[in-house]
Write a structure and sequence with these properties.
The protein is an alpha/beta fold and 240 residues long. The chain has a domain of 161 residues: Vaccinia Virus protein VP39 (Rossmann fold), CATH 3.40.50.150. 38% of the residues lie in helices and 22% in strands. The protein has 8 helices and 7 strands, in the order βαβαββαβααβαααβ. A 7-stranded mixed β-sheet has the order 3-2-1-4-5-7-6, sandwiched between helices. It is globular. The protein starts with 15 loop residues before the first strand and ends with a strand.
């Protein structure tokens, strides 16, 4: 399930792409398969990094390593990235900042490692669907590694643009997933026994795998109103 639309990201052959907070590797693998790029996925979770590497392995015959193409995963801290200044052409930071206390320090690190003129894509849970999840269940967010804040998109946009970025696109994603999470939050203590939750999950998996035109059209129609995530695309100011 990709939150970022790579059609809106200027990825070119030989670019260096960082998926910061890569989780199980969805965006890193997608970028690597899309173009001949050097892609690195970084996450705090050793288990997620191992899962990401395992998920990438079956695609290796389609995208053999070359001078212009590679994929790697590693454990790293977003507050102290183990990379030199200005070494990436694209940074993807999807559904990460809501987990981190000093998120502005993460944004500063992204700015440091991103080349002048490079692209940053940041996504976070949208304010009102996330607020409803918090209202329905404390356990949804009050756990280790959970969400510690609810962003207003306008505020996050200002924080990023204050660092010398210019937003060039914004959209919302995963409208069909918002009611699913509300249902899970409402039935949190018994969600694993709920037939309704199981049926809705089956619908989402079917939609993800089959991508029927009807549900794609319905989600595109609902995303501006109901989309669970807001996705913003920025360009770092080029060198004068």
């Amino acid at each position: 399930m990709e939150t970022v639309n790579l059609d809106y990201v200027p990825i070119r052959r030989g670019d260096r792409v960082l998926d910061l907070g890569c989780g199980e590797g969805r965006h890193a693998i997608a970028a690597w398969l899309r173009a001949e790029v050097h892609c690195v996925g970084i996450d705090l979770s050793v288990q997620d990094v191992a899962t990401a590497a395992a998920r990438a392995r079956p695609f290796a015959p389609e995208r053999p390593g070359t001078a212009h193409c590679s994929l790697g995963f590693g454990v790293g801290n977003a507050l102290q990235l183990p990379f030199a200044d200005h070494c990436f052409d694209v940074v993807i930071c999807s559904e990460v900042l809501e987990h981190i206390g000093p998120y502005r320090e993460v944004l500063a690190e992204i700015r440091r490692v991103l080349k002048p003129g490079g692209a940053l894509v940041a996504s976070v849970p949208r304010y009102w669907p996330e607020r409803l999840c918090w209202a329905l269940s404390d356990a949804y967010h009050a756990n280790e590694g959970g969400h510690i804040r609810i962003f207003r998109a306008a505020r996050l946009n200002r924080d990023i643009e204050a660092l010398g970025f210019r937003r060039y696109r914004r959209h919302w994603a995963h409208a069909l997933h918002a009611p699913f999470w509300w249902l899970k939050c409402l039935l949190w203590e018994r969600q694993h026994e709920s037939r309704l939750v199981a049926l809705y999950h089956r619908l989402l998996v079917w939609d993800l795998m089959e991508r029927p035109r009807l549900t794609r059209w319905v989600e595109a129609l609902l995303n501006p109103v109901l989309g669970k995530s807001v996705v913003m695309y920025f360009q770092k100011a080029p060198v004068p």
